[in-house]
């Protein structure tokens, strides 16, 4: 895969990965004739009361299967004038994601990691690394707040609000700060295989000399039927749902070196850029889109709820994210054989690799979305 997608050789090391991605992106921007342009991350959004909010400019569509998105890279470039896919920006992630606050919570709270097999192990046996906690606004509306921290293994069961404060400082809103203190309890799981890439969007008429960086991804995912990923008699499986999602998010922008871009100007460009991608995608896939106003985390919660799992059951189980990093859970026994301990890490593996619901490889997704545009 490294020959066609050089970033994959750095997939486990974020520092090197994102450094190499920046080099690739900078070179590509120069190839578009944008010389002496510098990169800037998405800035804080300054609200009417002066608050500096960390905003996630992002949209997505949900479809039945990742195969629906055959050739999507070529489709996007041909349909969206001014959109240029960044060569060699392909990367991929295996994301076990847990909802760790309920549907009645004021914000989404989720635990996420990346998933890798060890060199000496079977490829289907993976272990979580690069652990993170994230807090987001509810729903899929534009300009949701998003706050994320990386968490050491040993701190998973501790109050991590200090890590949020350390990262965001005085920009951390009081309600987010308070919500961060609440303990993490696993409500349900999603296993995601993500094929990601970047694009540059130019529109001099509407955005002037600003070049918007857009991160796109195709996700194939499974949602577990129970919070502990056990077998559900109700549906005859431990996997409740399998779908896919195409997502696009503003990652930052380029502007001429030395030029100061005003707050309102950059946010107008950001909103224009995300809408410029959204309209063609919604038109192209209107017959395939599954109506959905929920974020991924909310989809976990509503799926669990629809299968009859109650808040009281979740509180009784009191599952912690750290338990899913272990092959043996001494305090949890199998329902059909109380003499045997539960292997929650093994169940997490089955969320990705169960034969009847096996998620495609990262290579397969990338190959599919890079195919020529299907004939109509």
Automatic annotation (TrEMBL):
Domain of life: Bacteria
Record's protein name: Uncharacterized protein
Species this protein is from: Paraglaciecola aquimarina
């Amino acid at each position: 895969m490294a020959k066609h997608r050089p970033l994959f050789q750095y997939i486990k090391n974020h520092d090197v990965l994102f450094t190499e991605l920046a080099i690739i992106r900078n070179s590509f921007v120069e190839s578009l004739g944008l010389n002496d342009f510098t990169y800037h991350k998405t800035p804080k959004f300054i609200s009417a009361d002066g608050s500096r909010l960390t905003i996630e400019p992002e949209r997505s569509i949900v479809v039945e299967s990742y195969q629906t998105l055959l050739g999507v890279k070529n489709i996007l470039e041909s349909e969206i004038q001014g959109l240029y896919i960044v060569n060699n920006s392909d990367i991929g992630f295996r994301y076990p994601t847990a909802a760790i606050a309920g549907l009645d919570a004021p914000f989404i709270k989720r635990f996420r990691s990346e998933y890798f097999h060890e060199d000496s192990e079977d490829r289907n046996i993976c272990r979580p690394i690069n652990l993170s906690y994230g807090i987001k606004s509810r729903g899929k509306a534009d300009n949701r707040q998003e706050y994320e921290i990386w968490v050491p293994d040993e701190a998973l069961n501790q109050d991590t609000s200090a890590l949020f404060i350390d990262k965001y400082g005085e920009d951390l809103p009081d309600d987010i700060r308070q919500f961060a203190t609440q303990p993490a309890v696993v409500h349900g799981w999603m296993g995601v295989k993500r094929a990601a890439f970047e694009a540059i969007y130019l529109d001099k008429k509407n955005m002037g000399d600003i070049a918007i960086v857009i991160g796109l991804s195709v996700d194939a995912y499974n949602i577990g039927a129970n919070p502990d990923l056990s077998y559900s008699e109700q549906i005859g499986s431990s996997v409740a749902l399998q779908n896919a999602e195409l997502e696009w998010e503003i990652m930052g922008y380029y502007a001429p070196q030395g030029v100061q871009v005003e707050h309102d100007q950059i946010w107008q460009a950001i909103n224009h850029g995300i809408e410029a991608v959204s309209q063609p995608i919604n038109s192209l896939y209107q017959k395939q889109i599954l109506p959905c106003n929920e974020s991924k985390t909310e989809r976990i919660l509503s799926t669990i709820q629809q299968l009859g799992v109650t808040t009281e059951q979740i509180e009784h189980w009191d599952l912690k994210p750290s338990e899913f990093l272990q092959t043996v859970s001494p305090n949890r026994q199998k329902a059909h054989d109380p003499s045997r301990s539960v292997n929650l890490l093994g169940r997490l593996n089955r969320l990705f690799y169960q034969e009847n619901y096996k998620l495609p490889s990262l290579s397969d997704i990338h190959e599919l979305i890079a195919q020529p545009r299907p004939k109509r």
